[in-house]
Write a structure and sequence with these properties.
Helices cover about 25% and strands about 25% of the residues. The chain has 2 domains: about 160 residues, Medium-chain alcohol dehydrogenases, catalytic domain (Quinone Oxidoreductase, Chain A, domain 1, Alpha-Beta Complex); about 150 residues, Rossmann fold (3-Layer(aba) Sandwich). The protein has about 325 residues and is α/β, with parallel strands linked by helices.
């Protein structure tokens, strides 16, 4: 079969389209023909080796996969050839696909049957592949952990990426006032089209100062109406302390990652003076992923797909992701 792999850490040019042996479904597994897969923010990190995780080489990227069952092991009774499925990529006993176990940028994968979710009628393979990592992470963070409420002001940093776009959609659906941060006139316009009430161009200066210009500066005693109720910050780095300064009294920070650095300078004075809460959110569940599929089937959620390409163009798609030219999800087709 054909697969995209990298044999050493490096730039997107390290990705190779290669012929490799067809996988075989072992005990408790199902062989799935991959119909669509998608890149995520962690894929460039795995490629470059910047995370410190021990990545088994050669590695096939992509943790998001949708396809159809080709065959099942003798001990698997719940799935049959032709069944359309979404893969929950945090495989039991193996870890995250595309990070510490083989990803889905290939023609076929052998997957534990327990990691499969049936695709509802009307949900395309491309839509299903756009959902798991980005939309699953955002759904759990915004609804279960963050409990975004109607009328709250929500500032979303990195709002034009996969997780950020999903956060904008879920915050808007909750009835929040959404302020999206990003760069590039086209991507900021796309945020407005998604429903963002305000957008802040972070290439033009401090997002904190821009927020103060929109709503005013918050006060620790609650006498000011400035600031926001929630800051979504999976960027970290230099944005961390600045985000704290945007929060109203009793405001909360939602964090599910740290793409710009996990060990940022902070300012504890804001956390105690404003009685802020820092709420972590780690991944999502199979139930969350099934809920996303059901929402798409019902028409209440439309995953934002930046582009679809054949897997032979995986290097081009990866470079586009590194260059921050992607709005939403980049989908690859075997």
């Amino acid at each position: 079969m054909w697969a995209v792999r990298f044999h050493a850490h490096g730039r997107p040019a390290a990705l190779r389209l290669e012929r490799i042996a067809m996988p075989v479904a072992g005990a408790g597994e199902v062989l799935v023909r991959v119909r669509a897969c998608a890149l995520n923010g962690f894929d460039p990190m795995m490629l470059t080796g910047s995370t410190g995780l021990k990545v088994p080489l050669p590695m096939i990227p992509c943790g998001d996969v949708a396809g159809e069952v080709v065959a099942a092991a003798d001990d698997v009774r719940d799935w049959k050839p032709g069944d359309r499925v979404s893969v929950y990529p945090m495989l039991p006993g193996r870890g995250m696909m595309g990070e510490v176990t083989t990803g889905g940028c290939c023609e076929f994968i052998a997957i534990p049957a327990a990691a499969l979710i049936a695709l509802p009628r009307g949900v395309s393979f491309e839509q299903a592949a756009a959902l798991p990592v980005a939309y699953g992470t955002a759904l759990r963070m915004m609804t279960e952990r963050g409990q975004i409420r109607a009328g709250e002001r929500v500032l979303i940093l990195g709002a034009t990426g996969g997780v950020g776009v999903a956060c904008v959609q879920f915050a808007k659906q909750a009835g929040a006032i959404v302020i999206g941060c990003g760069s590039g006139a086209d991507k900021l316009a796309a945020l407005r089209n998604l429903g963002a009430n305000e957008v802040i161009d972070t290439s033009q200066g401090s997002f904190r100062k821009a927020l103060y210009a929109l709503y005013g500066k918050p006060s620790y005693d609650g006498t000011s109406d400035g600031g926001v109720d929630v800051v979504v910050n999976y960027i970290g780095g230099d944005t961390w302390a600045e985000g704290l300064k945007c929060l109203r009294r009793h405001g909360r920070v939602l964090v599910c990652g740290a793409t710009a650095g996990h060990d940022p300078k902070t300012d504890l004075r804001y956390i105690w003076s404003f009685e802020q809460s820092v709420i972590g959110s780690n991944g999502w569940t199979m139930e969350n992923q099934a809920e996303l599929l059901a929402r798409v089937a019902a028409g209440s959620l439309q995953p934002v797909i930046h582009a679809t390409r054949p897997i032979a163009q995986a290097a081009e798609a990866m470079q586009e992701l590194i260059d921050r030219r992607v709005f939403g999800k980049s989908v690859l087709l075997p």
